[in-house]
Amino acid sequence: MKKLLSFSLAFFAAVASFAQNPCNCEVLEGNQTVNKTLVSTKCYLLKGCYTVKAPARLGIQAGTKIFGDKDSKGSLIIERGAQINAQGQETLPIIFTSNQPVGSRQPGDWGGIIIAGKAPNNQPGGEFTVEGPCTPITAGGTDPNDNSGTLRFARIEYAGIAFSANNEINSLTLASVGRGTKIDHIFVSYANDDAFEWFGGTVNTKYLVAYKTRDDDFDTDFGYSGLNQFGLAIRDNNYHDVSGSNGFESDNNATGTTDLPQTQAIFSNYTVMGPLSCNATAHAEFKNGAQIRRNSSISIFNSVIAGWPTGLLLDGQLTVNNANVNNTLNFAHNILAGNTTPLALGGGATWPAGCSSTLSNWFKGFGAVACKEIGNETFPGIASLGYRKTCTNGCTDAPVFRIKPSSTLDSGGSFTEPQLLDPFFEVVTYRGAMYLTDWTKNAWGNFCADTTHYCPAPSNFRTSGVEEVESTLGAVAVPNPTVDATVVSFVLAEGAQVEVAAFNGNGEKVADLANGFMSEGENSVAFSTANLNSGLYFVKIKAGKKYQTVKVSVTK
Known about the structure:
The structure is a single chain. The protein is mainly beta. The chain has 3 helices and 39 strands. The strands form 6 sheets. The chain has a 17-stranded parallel beta sheet that branches. Strands 2-5-8-11-17-19-21-23-25-28-31 form an 11-stranded parallel beta sheet. A hairpin with a 5-residue loop joins strand 35 and strand 36 (about 510-520).
């Protein structure tokens, strides 16, 4: 009996360990005080607050997978003065995700990523403590060109924890990060709090995606003044927050004072789709496509806000004055569509005598020369916008937000406004996040995180797309290249148990094609590629002790 008890305890300990670290990854916890590089041939598990201390640098190779531990609220912290060098690739993104298995992942499974810098903010003394449960992290300084490193082509899934009121970790928190930092192609999905939040700083970004966020998609505070172009937010009526869920939410600071620097971030070419994009009614916790409040002066250009209870809310008298008297809050060449109430004032604000006589006239550009608003349009429904697809049908029908030619959106974009003359902005003629090219494709974007398997397959059934063929089965795929489907054929010298699966270039399984006994002779399996992005895929065949990999090129 003692032996049986000992075995049972060992077994359950092993099960518990597997549940916490299902992929048997290297654990990252505590402080990193020297330079370190995470490599794509391994995976990593964040436990607790893993903090990169100044002046250390954390490098992350393209294709690396990093799991956030649920029990310890794993989080990655880059202190001010430290740097991250995470340069994924379009076909080999860096993946930060939950350590829970498929079917059990939920928003808030782990903390998220915090990057702190030395750029200005409007907090007393120019410094503040970043929200969250970790050892106090200080952000802020006087260097607008501060460099916290690079984060490119990365996915952040199931992150964000609200520990208490105003004490939260977002999926990606940028705290006084300077414009010397490079941030682009970041895909956040299933964020439990905000997908992206900027607390002060000057960092510029391009190509951001917020998918199925609970709270706010793009939140700006503490005097953030960076430039941002090409962003996409897609909401799901099942994911919302008691604090009120918004697309854009912007404050000058927590109390709406006139402290400087003022929040004056600029956004262009954003598509922010609310719950009414695909539902007849919205949950009561959904509020605004853009809520600009507390003396913020952010400006939005060439963008689409669609499917929200309220499209644009100017909240509070100081905010309204920024729009109509100070002319620092600008809203031009935008489209509001399918919102129950397109325009509204909040916080007891009234429309003052300024550049325009009414909120509606300001929006339409009817006013004095000082009014910069022009080219805005409203539509009662979303269908008229001309998107190729606006709703999802699970993971088999991922959203596509390219604009159809000759639609409402393929023209009307303008970059003549003074705030858009910076060479950072790419001059395009369309409004919204994208035109004919879907820049979320080619593996770095993933609308199907809830069904994606990330752990490597057992060593006898390799997932790497570049290993040598160990023995031949005469396997071929026809047609190859393919658009919608191909057939993989192979020959067995004798009957055998056969496993066939398809993987993308990251080694992530995209389809199980066969698992069972097959007879001697020629056999074949069908591989449907209709819902896959363009790129190179690898069909792995294991038949008894024989293996072969077939490369399949998918073109759209």
